[in-house]
Design goal:
The protein is mainly β. It has a single domain, classed as OB fold (Dihydrolipoamide Acetyltransferase, E2P) (Beta Barrel), CATH 2.40.50. Helices cover 9% and strands 44% of the residues. The strands form two sheets. Strands 6-5-4-7-8 form a five-stranded antiparallel β-sheet, with no helix packed on it. A three-stranded antiparallel β-sheet has the order 2-1-3. Strand 1 and strand 2 form a beta hairpin. The longest helix is centred in the first third of the chain and has 6 residues.
Length: 133
């Protein structure tokens, strides 16, 4: 996904500090933050920080990637359930894609995600790494 500089700037708080929204009525946590709980219509919420570890629920291995990530292929994308039950998607890194498995324990790390265009603007975000790494 191409991340444009203005959008990247607006998403700094949630991406850099892993801020999510927890809605008052349901207690459901959403990342990235939402203004309205899609289940209840609730707008009353608090900002919470996400835990830094969880387990892989499902994953896929990308062997033929878009041009901007062709140097990474093959790489794994996973949906991870964090310790508080929040689910998020991200790249699994620092492991052989053949070693990825459902139930694998991972932790979130802050990493460079991409370099944008000729200006070379760096975008940072989270990636998952195996807990043993």
């Amino acid at each position: 996904m191409k991340m444009f500089v203005p959008r990247n700037w607006r998403e700094y708080p949630s991406r850099y500090r892993l801020e999510a929204s927890r809605f008052t009525k349901s207690g459901t946590v959403y990342y990235p933050k939402r203004m309205v709980d899609p289940e209840t219509g609730d707008t009353e919420q608090e900002t919470v920080n996400l835990p830094l570890s969880g387990k892989v629920l499902t994953y896929t291995v990308i062997r033929t990637s878009p041009d901007q990530w062709k140097d990474l292929a093959p790489y794994a994308l996973a949906i991870v359930e964090l310790e508080d039950g929040t689910r998020m998607m991200g790249q699994l890194t620092d492991c052989n894609v053949e070693e990825v498995s459902i139930g694998m324990e991972v932790r979130l790390e802050f990493r460079r995600v991409q370099t944008e265009g000729h200006s070379g603007v760096l975008s940072y975000g989270h990636k998952f790494v195996p807990k043993w790494y």
